[in-house]
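General statements about sequence and structure are easier to judge against a single worked case. In the encoding step, the backbone of a single protein was reduced to a row of integers, each denoting a local shape. The record that follows shows the chain in one-letter code together with its fold in token form.
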Amino acid sequence: MVREKDICWEYAEKLDGNKVKCKFCLRILNGGISRLKHHLSRLPSKGVNPCSKVRDDVSDRVRAIIASKDDFKETGNAKKQKAVEGKSTVNVTPSRSLLSVEATASTPVMAKVYPTVMPMPMAAPPLSSQENAEKNIALFFFENKLDFSVARSPSYQLMVDAIGKCGAGFTGPSADMLKTTWLERIKSEVSLQTKDAEKEWATTGCTIIADTWIDNKSRALINFLVSSPSRTFFHKSVDASSIFKNTKCVADLFDSVIQDFGAENVVQIIMDSGFNYASIANHILQNYGTIFVSTCASQCLNLILEEFSKVDWVNKCISQAQTISKLIYNSVSILDLMKKFTGGQELIKTGITKPVSNFLSLQSMLKQRSRLKQMLNSPEFSMNSSYANNPKHLACIAIIEDGDFWRAVEESVAISEPFLKVMREVSDGKPAVGSIYELMTRAKESIRTYYIMDESKCKTFLDIVDRKWGDQLHSPLHSAAAFLNPSVQYNPEIKFLVSIKEDFFKVIEKLLPTPDMRRDITNQIFIFTRASGMFGCNLAMEARDTVAPGLWWEQFGDSAPVLQRVAIRILSQVCSTFTFEKHWSTFQQIHSEKRNKIDKEMLNDLAYINYNLRLTRQMRTKPLETDPIQFDDIDMTSEWVEESDNPSPTQWLDRFGSTLDGSDLNTRFHAAIFGANDHLFGL
């Protein structure tokens, strides 16, 4: 019966004897559920190997269980101690009474007073060295208002390991050393890494990314980044508030950035479609014959999903789903009950934008449909009178039991998933310009297939896609990249090659502007399309779908050397800015007029280091299972959770543990947990 009641059994599988198997890392442990708890808690001081795959929420839950059990033991021991002390007092009292009587008899003038024996207070158990270290790290976080997500940073553990190797007596660098010696040294190291990336530009070219942000006070910031196959790095941040409405001034700014990288190295510039896009694009296209201008693919896809969510029945479906999630996430007891039925999984997801969050959450809710219904029918839910009589609960139950609601969820998921898939492909930092055309074509075909019997709905959603894709995103560069992509060119199922051929020739004429440069290009195009020469060898055919298109051309394109150079430059480009996390609150403070020149220079250096370290880590250490369009933590202030427009401070503090990322869905500020107005780096 004890085993049945222990909630930690949901994380383990009972084996023969006293053995258990962890459901996260599949490790087999001797010692039963107690040993499993210490395994999941990741407390190495207990002599059990910590689980490397357990989720943070599960680990925290198990630690709380262990702590409450220890507290119970201490309380029991205290009671026993008091009982023993009580007996001791009873035994002493008669002797004291006898002595008092004897003393009174022998010395009637003076009364003897004896002090009362008080029990000693229970001392807190001594901390182990591991616990003491953890306590001091926690105090450092709390005192300095550090975001808890800092503890997930790989450099956090590297720092802890390095300090451990130094042993006792290690003294950390002073504030002066950090902002002088180490700031300069690390900035130099980061700069050297960017110099290494520049070496490939002569072959692959690069893409300049102009990431823009405008607030409701007409403050405009532009972050310039540059991307090539080996890496993307942050170049600089510019306060364009005073010039963003002046086309000539903004054009001059872009000219200066292009010159920083060399016009001969720049293949493409990705801009925000809303930032004076048409005028700046025309200026660049007229003045730089070999540079293309594109809008952000992820931004376009986000606009498509936003328009999808505005369709009446989709909007109603999202609103009803939010009714369910708000009820669950605003009741501790219901949330605990829900997680019991979902195995600890969340019901909703937080994406990189509001529309993405909406459709990811619908997907997640659809997966948990049967478990939600099981929860409603469970004795824990049905026997709780506070659930049964609450109007909000009754409304939520009605939605979960409504078949029309779930059919709308299924339909919303079906039409959105193809475009979420495209967004994932273009947002993971890899060169995706060769895939975007095919991916969008397949996504549109998915809509046609799904609505094969409903022409009206099919037209509604395809019109949305065509408006955004055709009017904003589509570029001749995308067509040329698709034509040169071997997985597209040699795929017999692809039907659009003829329609993109004209765009391909326009791009060739742009990149090879003189007849001398195009002397043998027609013959080389023929060799490529017919898979002659090296293009037709077994290795080349086997690698068409498995090797990145740019690398494929580098390995097998020697039969068409001129076309090879063009293909590598085109296929080595990214087509999205959403890969890169924005830190607009940081740049706001850098450009503050209240700062002196020294402070601004230091903050610029810090932002340069911080942004590039994050980009490097994202490109090199990204786990395969990471979803590039989804955050790990739920945004507890989103419309899927927050019930009131003006939450009280108490509500916010209650949800403090789940709002660790500090990222807003629209501007994606990455401020400290105590707000975007806190001073950065003490400046």
The two ends are 59 Å apart (CA to CA). Strands lie at 12-14, 19-22, 28-30, 206-214, 220-228, 231-239, 266-271, 292-295. Confidence is low (pLDDT under 50) at residues 82-115, 645-683. The longest helix spans residues 56-106.
